[in-house]
Amino acid sequence: MDKLPKSIDYDSIPVYYCTQCLSLRIKGVPGSKDMNFCDECNCASIGQTDIFTWEELYQQKYGYKFLNKPKYKNGREH
Ligand SMILES: [Zn+2]
Questions:
Q1: What distance in Å separates the CA atoms of residue 47 and residue 68, rounded to the nearest whole number?
Q2: Residue 76: helix, strand or coil by DSSP?
Q3: Ligand 1 centroid to 5 CA: how many Å?
Q4: Is 50 exposed, middle or buried (0-12, 13-18, 19+ CB in 10 A)?
Q5: pTM here?
Q6: 42, 47, 50, 73: which sits with the fewest CB atoms below 10 Å from its CB?
């Protein structure tokens, strides 16, 4: 992890996300480039954007930034 270069332009990296639950856990169907679906809710409404835009969408939906989660009060994410 810490061997990654520090100058990555995160805001220019395209990400695929689920437009329903905003998960970034998108699964692809082997052999088909256009068939992707969400690993969380299994829907096939996949959008593409950059990480900044996605983070804003995520914050609007859940009320906090994915990358800046508030402390885990119960020790668990869910
Ligand atoms: Zn989903």
A1: 22
A2: coil
A3: 30
A4: middle
A5: 0.66
A6: 73
Taking only the tens place, the pLDDT of each residue in 12-41 is 788 999 999 999 999 988 887 778 899 999
Cα 69 to ligand 1 centre (Å): 19
Domain boundaries, the chain: 12-63
Q: Extract the tokens encoding 1.
A: 């992890």
CA of 51 from ligand 1 middle (Å) equals 16
How many DSSP H helices and E strands does the chain contain?
Answer: 1, 4
The rounded Å distance from CA 57 to ligand 1 centre is 13
Residue 15, token pair as written in the block: 């990400």
